[in-house]
Amino acid sequence: MPYYLRSLAGVPNCCIPPIFKPSHEVEVPFDLWISAIPDIQEFFLLGNDLLSFPKEVLALENFNYLSLITRARRQVGRTSLFNSKDGLWTMRDTLHEAFDQLLSCTAALDKVFISFAESLSEFEAAQSQAEINGLTKGKDKTSKMDREKLENARLAAKYWGEYRQGYIAFHVNTPRYRLSSLRATTGATTDTREIAVAAAATAS
């Protein structure tokens, strides 16, 4: 229930189309990204909640998604994965769970966009080599890779990668989020996976 409420309180859906339409001249067809909306929404919300958490703790805020999840799990008697004093779920459990979810949805999105575009490129290269070797006849429209679709897949991968890195970099490099210690731990990187792993290790 807390995540459902969080998804209603956030505004990620209106932020998703501009990722794939950076200008009036360039646009990735919606059929290449519309099915990824739930995962992009999860990336947006969890990324914001985790990266906003330090400043919220310092401001003594306790009515946020991570705090609500922790209270809800404790109320139903969920046991902690760590050695808590009463054996019940703690904020540490919530942070680790949220980091795992963020890593999972990021990996899923990378597979949808980046790995897919790479596999299409490999398929096109294999087809071209087969034509050179005379293993295929001419340019069969039913089997020849649609170059426009390939280019759109590459653009989708490019824009997703830029958004992912830019979203993390914005939070890490903006003073109000109080992430200077995380920036010092990870150096100049803005890679989602490296930052999440480093932050999870810090929380351990």
Based on DSSP secondary structure assignment, what is the total number of beta strands?
Answer: 0
Encode the helix/strand succession as letters.
HHHHHHH
Count of DSSP-assigned helices: 7
The largest sheet, given as strand count, sense and whether it forms a barrel, is: none
Global geometry: elongated
Radius of gyration: 21 Å
- Enumerate the spans where pLDDT stays under 50 for 5 or more consecutive residues: none
Into which percentage range does the β-strand content fall? under 5%
The whole-number mean of residue pLDDT values reads 83
The helix-and-strand class reads mainly alpha
Residue share in helices? 55-70%
Distance between the termini: 26 Å
If you had to describe this structure to a student in words, what would you say it looks like?
- With 204 residues, this protein is an all-alpha fold.
- The protein contains seven helices and no strands.
- The relative contact order is 0.13.
Layout of strands and helices, then pairs:
Layout: H1 2-9, H2 37-58, H3 65-75, H4 91-132, H5 147-173, H6 180-186, H7 192-203
Helix pairs in contact: 2-4, 2-5, 3-4, 4-5, 4-7
Q: What tags apply to this protein structure?
A:
elongated, 204 residues, mainly alpha, 7 helices
Short description:
By secondary structure, the protein is mostly helical. It is 63% helix and 0% strand.
